[in-house]
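Standup, Tuesday
Yesterday: got the pipeline producing structure tokens again.
Today: sanity-check two examples.
Blockers: none.

Example 1:
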Amino acid sequence: MDNQNTSNSKDTIPPKEENSVLIPKIEVSDMAPVAVVKETTESVLKDFSKKPTSEAPKAPKKNKKIIKILLGVLGVFLFFIIYNVISGLIIYQKANKLIDSGKVLAQAATSQDLVKMKSELGNTNIALKEFKGAYGLVAWEKFLPFVGPYIGDGSHILKAGEAGLSVGETVLTVIEPYADLLGFSNGTTSVLGVDSSEQTTQDRINFIVNAIPDLLPQIDAISEKMKIVQSEISEIDTDKYPAEFRGIAVRSKLKSAQDLVSEASTFLVNGKPFLESAQYLLGMDSPRTYLVLFQNDKEIRPTGGFMTAYSIMKVDKATFDPTISSDIYTLDAKYTPTIQAPDPIINYIKGPYVLSQKWRLRDMNWSPDFATSMETVIPAITKAGITNIDGIIAVDTHLLVNLLNVIGPIGVPGFGNFSTEISPKCNCPQVIYELESFADVEGPIIWDPLTGKIIQRPPNSDNRKEIIGPLMNSIMANALAQPKEKIPALMQAGFTSLLEKHVLFYLMDEKVQTAVSDFGLGGKIDQTYENDYLHVSDANLGGRKSNLYAYSEVQQDIDVSGNGTVTKTVTITYKNPEKQDGWLNSVLPTWVRVYVPKGSELIASEGLDKTQDPYEDLGKTVYAGYFQLRPEGVSKVTLKYKLPFKVSKQYKLLIQKQPGTDGFLYTVNLGKHTEEFFLKQDKELKISI
């Protein structure tokens, strides 16, 4: 009963159970107005609805855009790779065809087959055009980084190749009428109107010399095309290429190609004035008379060797007639010395200079500049009775050997047979051994202290060099009588001798002398070159022939500082590997002069027994001194100096060869760049810094 009443009672509060939650009682009066609650709810819902519509969709759109860009870049890259692979295969195929065509052309040139040369030149031209078309597929890439410069080099090579083949076509057209005269097979019928077997070298020389005026206009056309070749090839920076790639020398071959093109271009430009002077030199307008000096390079002197003998040679319409030849001592005996001799000659040759310090005629080729030396010689020979000459031609034993290598063994009446076969008696060509053995008769020469005349001498010493005249006559006669098959080799022998300074000219006619000198045949020291320069001039002052065996190696270590200052260390290592024989090979007393840019500052000098203070000569600063090289010995001369100017971007160096020397080894080091070469002729280096 009580329970029922309790449950029905409206105001009764139910009993609180353990752990129960008491819900608070909310009065209606405590609640916010309905309108306020509604407004608040709508506001919250509105804010909640804005968030997903403004932020959530943005992330997917951005990611899709990035993915599209990446896919586009990847597609372009893949297309670029595929495009270049296909282009590379096409270029490779055309390059192989071009190389094969070039090899066949080279074989045709070697065989001297003119018809085949013209045919293969046309085939090579076609192959080059096909290669150019294929190369056009990638030529536009020269503007790209990294690979661009290499692509650009390919374009330069193509343009040079086109111009070079054009030069070849012009040359073949020019020489075609004279092909048979020059020894080419399948050429035109003999222009001399006789069977080619009856045409001597003299016949060919006469005809070609008369044809020179017709050839000169073609020289201009060839020169212009060669300038294009040189311009394109010079644009290639060889230093960016590796020294080797898969065992193939890359950098050196590129530099050799640049040097060859530069030399050929210079040769053609300077060759025209020389060809214009050829008719004068060969007496086509009137006879010429030359003094021929024989310089013994085995006893080296500044212009190529000791002036051991001489000959008077007349040339009339390209016909050579040596009239007289004799020993230099015979000529010197007719000359009364009046000029003071240079100190090194007085101090180290001694002999007659003990009695008188006046300069003997035979020692007057003291300046390394051939023209300067001959300007001293000419007044002396005039006083000795040689007058009315048109010039002086100096030759050394290398010319004899080069010609005999082509002609073969020859006989000289009254003197025996001569050849270039190596003689075990001297480990040298037999002709050299015979010349030296006949010329060098042992024994003392005694001068009268009052008159300076020789009062005692060994047998034959009064004309110990008379063999040279008959030998040269025999060589000349044999050379001019050679069949056409040997003409190219003879021309090469003569040309090599000219370029390597084994034949030098000094002409009385100023215009002709300029043409000869500019062509590189004047033995001139370049006084106008404005960059780094080096010329090493040795003089044997002992009378022996040790230069037959002695040789030198020249190393240049070049340091360029951050501000462009250049410090050089030049090391000249002299070696004589043979034993002393008391005749040819003995102690070698040498006066060395090193010509460097004017104003260079000497820092240190080592290896010289005696030194001379630096002085100026021929527009250069000269470091000079004396040393001795013994048989089986080594001597080293080191000079350290600073150049009078600074360099940037490119370092240039001109090295001039001493006449009579046989191409000694030169090494040039600048930073990581190293070049090695045998100095056969003057050489200019250009090295990027």
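Example 2:
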Amino acid sequence: MRYHLLATDYDGTLADDGKVAAETVTALNDVLATGRRLVLVTGRELDELMSVYPDLTIFERVVAENGALLYRPATKERRRLADPPPAALLAALRRLGVAPLSTGEVIVATREPHETAVLEAIRELGLELQVIFNKGAVMILPAGVNKATGLTAALEELKISPHNVVGVGDAENDHSFLKLCECSAAVGGALPAIRDKADLQLAGYAGSGLRELAAELVEDLGATRSPDRQRLAFGVDDRGTAMTLEPYGDCILVCGASASGKSTVARRIVESLQQLSYQFCIIDPEGDYEEQPGAVIVGKPDAEPRREEVVQLLEDYGVNGVVCMTGVPISDRPRYFSSLLADILQLRLRYGRPHWLVIDEAHHLLPAEWEPPNTVLPETLVNVLLVTVHPELLSPEMQQRVTRLVAVGPTAGEMLRQFVERRGMSLPAAALAATEAELGVGEVLLYSAVDGSCRRVRIEPPSTEQRRHTRKYAEGQLPPDRSFYFRGPEKKLNLRAHNLLQFLEIAAGIDDDTWEYHFRQGDYSRWFRDVIKDPELAAAAAAVERDRFLSRANAVAALRAAIESRYTLPADAPLPVRGAS
């Protein structure tokens, strides 16, 4: 469910001439029956509101006094969100003959044409106050207080992100809170300035328009319809048309050969999520995202990330998470991930977030033999980004849920064709032609499993390059197929180094023949280049390997120095080679 909360204005939206129709209350109860919540956002003073609409219990929160007061109907608690008006202001306004004049817990209100006297009093007293207009009403509030700030306070209490809110209103003072909501709606009869900026223009006036919106929510008609302002920047196609991604509804698979640019695509999408404040959670099996900006890391190489810590972190919609799984044994990672996925999906049921789940090295966590319990994986899995070098090894359960595929690198066309074949689908002629064309630098194939379309897209580069692998390669646990094996000339040994630290430890302790065998073949620089994906480290190692007169001790020291200059090793990492000179 995308939208978990409906926020509505009162006068001119929920109410017509101050009264709420019985059929409108019925429509709101229908919304509640879907598991959604309601918040009332009004410029009225609370006591005045309760005199005309006494039963507020269908609302989880009431934002009154144009954002200055928060009310909890279930407990009847009131919470002031700003300081009350100074007595000097009220005295000045009475002296100037301003009437009518009413005061709430924070707000001071009158009507036009008294705005001139109001501004004069504020200026003479040197107060930091603002004047807000609403269909003839003149409201005086502390600077920075409006319906958006009040709604934000309500959402924070409810742990609901603005991205999971639909807002509806009609007048000037609704601008701020409608802009805050993921989707904004204007009832018929709303001011032109409101209707022109609203994402949805409802036909019905006041309560009739609200009932129209409530019916859409009950039927979930707008779940996959996103305003242009919320779409995710991605790139441009071969005709120069901007290509964006839906912020809701897709399960995206990014695949390509090693070092083909998968990480660039993933980082582009994650950065677009950050720019629009969508909450994301990255599942990071190998420590590639340990320096992800704007995210909190849970887990480390010597400690399994605690699931309850992940859940607690993500309950704050303003916090993004990276779950580092380098401390989880490789054989245990699918089991651990299944349990964590169940926790995350429960969070989504309650709050609609994290908005996106990014699963790196997805074929390790969701291997072909993975069969999730029916209670874990919903039939439609949305807002998931899967990244893998081996899409064919991915669980068929997950492959069937993919709605978009981004194929990267020289094997992009072949990977796309194989994916379509595994799904039992066929490519339209135009899409097939796209898979056969050679991709340019920075280009990918973007395929839709929904309509069969395939476009060549030049990715908009992320603003910062990701510093990858520092912890994974230094201290983490690389899988067996990416580890270095010291075997020697006669293959008598099979010593596995699953990270750079262990590589140095074994290199310091093996016999001279084994060291020399791999050294003369250039195996060390080849591993750094092909597996560690560090061309600078590989070049430094190759230079060491070319020096045939260098002693083993000096060669190991040179490799260590090259590694230390790029990666952080523990202080107790091994130093010299034993007994070699």
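Quick observation on example 2: The longest strand covers residues 129-134. DSSP finds 21 helices and 25 strands in the chain.
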